[in-house]
Amino acid sequence: MKSLTLLSLFITITASSAFASQCPEILKGEQRLLNSTDTVNLCDEFKGQTLLVVNTASQCGFTSQFDDLEKLYQQYKDQNFVVVGFPSNDFRQDKGSEEQTAKVCYLDYGVTFPMMARSSVKGSDANPVFEKISDQAGVEPRWNFYKFLVNKNGDVVATFPSSTNPMDTKLRRVIEQQL
């Protein structure tokens, strides 16, 4: 009887740790950082955090949202929250080199949140992160600066159109509910 109890305990502990180490589908894989050869393992970097995933463009009417995305990131980063930017030229407003895109993000707007390399965010060539986000949310980005809130479990819990300012009360309320 004692060995059966120990066996049950061992199976429970093993199953619990295996479950805890699983990575949400959205975070499986690596991404190259903007204008860099460095890559980041999304699971290692972001597992267990609330994410605001944003497709960005450096030459868009909404590009000034980088200021408020940075403010939002600074406001909540100590509460397991991260803004993650994915530059894309899908809407033809992130032309030129990645170096130019990085200049806009880092120098012009002072972005400190993670920015991934330029990639497609819709269609058959979509970045795997956006492919999974679109599958869950049932919507692809309709324009630049479309925002997807992903909870700590890797589930898309809200989407916000490009016109929603990052400091919008409703958006911040939904983020706070996830923290």
UniProtKB/TrEMBL annotation:
One of its GO terms (molecular function) is peroxidase activity. It comes from the Bacteria. Residues 1-20 form the signal peptide. It holds the Pfam family GSHPx. The active site is at C60. Gene3D superfamilies: Glutaredoxin (3.40.30.10). Keywords: Oxidoreductase, Peroxidase, Signal. One of its GO terms (biological process) is cellular response to oxidative stress. Belongs to the glutathione peroxidase family. This is Glutathione peroxidase.
